[in-house]
């Protein structure tokens, strides 16, 4: 089967003005979800211009297979993200591409039994060959063998890992380069986590996930104001929300982009208004729930934010590792 690779959406400088104009049009000329997307851009820019605000970006869902790698990288490069919280799957797919493999276009109506026989894994309408996971294993094991350390906070390890990657576009690599802490509270629930466990069966290796709890709580407690762009919910959303709850300092700004519903009671569909009852979001916070596929909303937001950032200077905050 001849496969066409996912090339990833890239918001160019030529697009930024048009996307900003589109968002302005949504702000005054639309209702429903479009108006909420415009409000999300406005709240994000309020976060950026609040010099006391620490900005958290949480990423769940198949954003890299969905073509959002460059969009997420550009958010990091803009200096508008201080802390990154991601699922293990997000980091796994990022690593696969960092080591030279690709995701490919497929079909949601494909014959899955036939795909399995061809060694192809389907993520809705995206495909990933089994060879990508085999290559990931070889590279991760090699990186681990080169380290002189055997004990890391999980966030420390992810920064170390990002610094070892080849010079290809990578979320982990950019976050590490910019000294943005990378948290992955459910790393065991991923192929990356499985590879770490595999290595630990024959080599000394301790990745401390619980130690990161202190680090994220210290960041939340010491930040005067906090804002979050929450993509897709899941564990990353709850990780930042719980840090706010236990410090009794709710988010001052919050944007959620999700397709999930609140009725089943799950965290991914829970409204930000509901989070006020838990003190995860401050009662006076600026917040908005955008019910939209993040692969649609994020590039539009990035274009408008990038355009508005041209006259604003901001660098991401740097947080030390707390022992």
Keywords:
single chain; about 325 residues; alpha/beta; Deoxyhypusine Synthase; 6-stranded parallel sheet; 3-stranded antiparallel sheet; globular
Q: How many domains, in number, for the residues?
A: 1
The CATH homology group name: Deoxyhypusine synthase
Multimerization state: single chain
Based on the coordinates given, report the CATH architecture. 3-Layer(aba) Sandwich
Low-confidence stretches: none
Task: Report the order of strands and helices.
Answer: HHEHEHEHEEHEHHEHEHEHEHEH
SS summary, helix count: 13
Q: What coarse outline follows from CA principal-axis ratios? A: globular
As a percent range, the share of strand residues is 15-25%
